Amino acid sequence: MQATAAAVQVNNINLVRGMIGKPGCGVLQMNGQPTAQNTRETGADGDLPGFRNWDNPKHIEELARIWNVDVAVIPHWAPPTHALEIFHLAETGSIRMLWISGTNPAISLPNLPRVRKILEKEDLFVVVQDAFLTETANLADVVLPAALWGEKTGTFTNVDRTVHISHKAIEPLGDARPDFDIFLDYARRMQMGEPGGGLRSVEGLHGWTALRLLRAILCEAE
């Protein structure tokens, strides 16, 4: 129950020893969920990958060049829209579809009565992609069964920034599919094309993503 206090004390030690702002040093960010660190580093939380600044034109041009897309494709006309603001926009009708993957906002966000009321709106189409029939999934219009960590190959980042690979141990049960397969199938059906010029496997995705993420991180930040 004292996880926050413990994390603060670890970072206090770094501060007392003067280990901030030096090469190889930095705050040890301890996140609340597995692989939450690489979620942030790869831009999966709404921010841009490689710690790129949405308000820096050079960063946007750099990402567009690395990803081989037009600059206009990368959202950079306003700050990233995070979870609470997304639900506010869904409440006002600006957003009419939510695709929720691997999280359970019906029990995890503040002001749960309001969040659940938004999820129950008749004019909001809710898709939930999860391995479990969660409280949020029970409010969804469509549920996409997703594979668990042992049923798919993927990576996760430790608090020390070490990237680990997790190999698939068994085939997904029932109709469950890896998240990558679900997203790629959706992209094909919507005629969005495929990343990296035609990826066909999660191994190829990790190689393609890792290369571009590494390039983005190593490029000098303005």
Question: Explain this structure to me?
Answer:
The chain has 222 residues and is α/β, with parallel strands linked by helices. The chain folds into two domains: 1-30, no CATH class; 34-218, Rossmann fold. The protein is built from eight helices and five strands; from the N terminus they run H-H-H-H-E-H-H-E-E-E-E-H-H. It has helices at 3-16, 36-41, 57-67, 83-92, 105-108, 112-119, 179-189, 202-218; strands spanning 97-101, 125-130, 142-145, 154-157, 163-166. The strands form two sheets. Strands 1-2-3 form a three-stranded parallel β-sheet, with no helix packed on it. Strands 4-5 form a two-stranded antiparallel ribbon. A hairpin with a 5-residue loop joins strand 4 (154-157) and strand 5. The longest helix is centred in the last third of the chain and has 17 residues, at 202-218. The termini are far apart. Residues 206-222 have low confidence and may be disordered.
| Number of domain modules | 2
Number of strands: 5
- CATH class (first level) name of the largest domain: Alpha Beta
Structural class: alpha/beta
The helicity comes to: 25-40%
The major beta sheet can be summarized as:
3 strands, parallel
What is the beta-strand fraction? 5-15%
Poorly predicted tracts of residues:
206-222
Number of helices: 8
Outline the secondary-structure elements:
Blueprint: H1 3-16, H2 36-41, H3 57-67, H4 83-92, E1 97-101, H5 105-108, H6 112-119, E2 125-130, E3 142-145, E4 154-157, E5 163-166, H7 179-189, H8 202-218
Parallel strand pairs: 1-2, 2-3
Antiparallel strand pairs: 4-5
